[in-house]
Amino acid sequence: MFKNILVAVDGSENNKAAVRMAIEMAKNYGARLTAVYVENVSYRMRPDYTTVDDPLKNADTVFEYIKSEAESNKVDIVYKVILGHPGESVSDLTPDYDLVICGSLGRSGLKKAVLGSVSEMITRFSECPVLIVRK
Q1: Is 110 buried (19+), middle (13-18) or exposed (0-12) by CB count in 10 A?
Q2: What per-residue confidence (pLDDT) applies to 55?
Q3: Is residue 101 within 8 Å of 133, Cβ to Cβ?
Q4: Sign of the CA dihedral 112, 11, 93, 75?
Q5: What are the Cα distances from residue 50, in Å, to 7, 76, 120?
Q6: Do residues 62 and 92 lie in contact, with contact meaning Cβ atoms separated by under 8 Å?
Q7: What is the assigned CATH class of domain 4-133?
Q8: Residue 111: C-alpha distances to residues 13, 26, 47, 108, 114 (Å)
């Protein structure tokens, strides 16, 4: 049923449940799993248009959890890092996947929000099914 699964990762505690679900589904379906981290550069720009942090360093930190979980479950993962808006960037990738998995709330962690703005955008603009995993 699912041959190519994309999981959006952001390093938040809320995202860990989505990561575990993605790994379990990839294992059960024998699917290829891709983890994508999108560094939202619009929030990290200085007045001289250089970024505050190194996006690749941030991605390595975010990928540590999924690498550990994948290794213990013997699931291979392809890793992608994109600079851009998270919701838009993940949505743009969806034509190449059978399923997208993301957390319901991300780094902003707005407790009053029912659905995070990124997961809402992915749901609205995805060209494949989206599974939103609550913590």
Answers
A1: exposed
A2: 67
A3: yes
A4: negative
A5: 28, 34, 29
A6: no
A7: alpha beta
A8: 13, 29, 31, 9, 8
The SS3 assignment for 71 reads helix
**Residues 6 or more apart from 10 whose CB is under 8 A from it?**
37, 38, 62, 86, 103, 106, 107, 118
Q: Fill in the amino acid letter for 90.
A: V
Query: Both tokens of residue 62?
Result: 């975010």
User: What's the pLDDT score for residue 14?
Assistant: 85
Does the pLDDT of residue 15 top 60, yes or no?
yes
Q: What is the tens place of the pLDDT at every residue in 30-76?
A: 999 999 999 886 655 555 555 556 667 788 888 999 999 999 999 99
Rounded CA-CA distance 111/130 in Å is 22
pLDDT at 135: 76
Q: Where are the domains of the chain?
A: 4-133
| Residue 22: both structure tokens together | 């993605």
- What are the distances in angstroms from CA 45 to CA 9, 27, 48, 49, 85? 21, 38, 8, 6, 13
